Amino acid sequence: MSDNLLICDLTQSWSPTGGGGISTYLKEKRKYFQAKTEHRLLQIVPGPEDRITVEGRTIFAEVGSGQVWGSPNYRWISRNDAVFALLREYKPDIIESLCPWVLPWIAIRHRLRHPDTALVAGYRTDFPNSQVYRVMNDLSGHYPASFFRQVAYFYAWMTYHRFDRVYTLNREAQAMLAQLGCRNTGVLGLGVDVERFSPARRDPDFRAKLGLPRTDGPLLIYAGRLDNEKRAYVLTEMFKQLPRDLGAAMVLMGDGKLRDTLMEEAKSLPIAFPGYETDRETLASALASCDIYVSGMADETFGISVLEAQASGLPVVGVASGAMPERVPEGTGLLGPVDDAKAMADNVVRVWREDYAGSRAAALALAARHNRWPQTFEQLIDVEYAEALRARDRRRAGLIRGRLKRAPNFS
Questions:
Q1: Is 259 helix (H, G, I), strand (E, B) or coil?
Q2: Cβ–Cβ under 8 Å, residues 165 and 104
Q3: What CATH number does the domain located at 199-369 have?
Q4: With the C-alpha atoms ordered 36, 40, 46, 52, is the resulting torsion angle positive or negative?
Q5: Phi-psi region of 353 (alpha: psi -120 to 50; beta: other; left: phi over 0)
Q6: Nearest of 407, 224, 400 to residue 309 by alpha carbon
Q7: Would you list the domain boundaries of the chain?
Q8: Assign residue 380 a region: left if phi > 0, alpha if psi is -120 to 50, beta otherwise?
Q9: 303 partner at 20 to 30 Å CA-CA among 69, 283, 321, 328?
Q10: Which H or E run contains 334?
Q11: 208-216 average pLDDT score
Q12: 321-378 pLDDT, tens per residue?
């Protein structure tokens, strides 16, 4: 692979100020490209206004975009022409699409004019389940929702079989894409910064700073969006079903359209809502200062927050769906049925009272075996991008052969 490629990340929606899987990925990728490669990196993201920031070999292009309703830290690109203009101006060698909706088709259309462009897609969200089925099920019930989920999977096939390479974040998603007919796929393991996320970050005064009572019980934590997609409502229902003599408290660290509702429901409970945390060091300290990570998210495709919690020494109580079974193997926590608050409460009690020290040690050992960010980006460049370039070359050779066959014979 050439040492001077221009690689472009396309991101439809993200939060420019804090965590989230894509935000973490983009920030770590910029650091890696600056320090470890000779490639140039263009990242096109939504922002408060049109703005280009150049730092060394990285170009950060913000497209002025509106905020996402209910998630004020997130923005959504709706100005396709502005994205087209950036692609025409910079002409990247590889485009990596990180979101499933409109921008993948912007990349596909750009390649029609510039067939030397290699297209890579990250299948990071099982959107037919998490975003289509969930919404439609709430509106109209299971059977209409199932129909539209199948339509969404057909859309996924229509989109991703046009890419030169698609990577997923777990083997289950890769198998699903294979069923859709996508063959040139890989599994990319994301990284964790074990120097930042570590038990050494523990703050003994963390409870007091949040106004939570000091007890001998566990302090639970969730860090992420407080919305329906993340099933944040399950966490407050779970907490209500914990036995009082457990002495538990909980921190719901995040923002979203359910935050005000959950705060109202939790008025009489020892639950803190510190809000959306923009500083990664503060997040690392919060995780290390708690005892158990809890999540009701059923459609997680990787779970960076889970891995960061494990690196901080926290067993995980979650649900047996999506990427959770891969992220939380036996001994590192417990998983239960989706949307079953009582089962989650029972699992919190079991983790805390049965072998908490063993689960904590297993979580730390698991995190230590996971990728570091440099390993993630080495695989991305040496495997995923290299496979995309080879597929591009085969595609280009096929186009040339097709043109030669159609050419008139003047002999």
A1: helix
A2: no
A3: 3.40.50.2000
A4: positive
A5: alpha
A6: 224
A7: 6-191+372-406, 199-369
A8: alpha
A9: 69
A10: strand 333-336
A11: 95
A12: 888 998 999 999 999 999 999 999 999 999 999 999 999 999 999 999 988 999 999 9
The pLDDT of 161-175, averaged and rounded, is 93
Return the beta strands (E) in 136-254 as ranges: 165-168, 185-187, 219-223, 249-253
pLDDT, position 215:
92
Helix (H, G, I), strand (E, B), or coil: what is residue 78? coil
Coil, helix or strand at residue 174: helix
pLDDT tens by residue, 174-200:
999 999 999 899 999 999 999 999 999
Strand partners, 7: 41, 94
Residues 122, 98 contacting (CB under 8 angstroms) = yes
- What single letter denotes the amino acid at residue 25? Y
C-alpha to C-alpha distance for 151 and 130, rounded to whole angstroms: 14
Q: Which residue has the tokens 């830290």?
A: 73
> What is the Cα–Cα distance from 38 to 358, expressed in whole angstroms?
44
Beta bridge partners of 333: 316
The answer to whether 116 touches 396, Cβ cutoff 8 Å, is yes
DSSP 2: -
Instruction: Tell the CATH superfamily of the 6-191+372-406 domain.
Output: Glycogen Phosphorylase B; (3.40.50.2000)
Q: For the chain, how are helix, strand and coil distributed in percent, rounded to 5? A: 45, 20, 35
- What are the b/e assignments for 41-71, b being 16+ CB within 10 Å? bbbbbbbeeeeeeeeebbbbbbbebeebeeb
Q: Smallest Cα–Cα separation from 386: which of 2, 63, 103? A: 2
Mean pLDDT of all residues in 291-303: 89
Residue 113 pLDDT > 90: yes
Q: Give the separation between CA 89 and CA 244, rounded to whole angstroms.
A: 62
Residues contacting residue 398 through CB under 8 Å, at least 6 positions apart:
none
Same fold, 6-191+372-406 and 199-369: yes
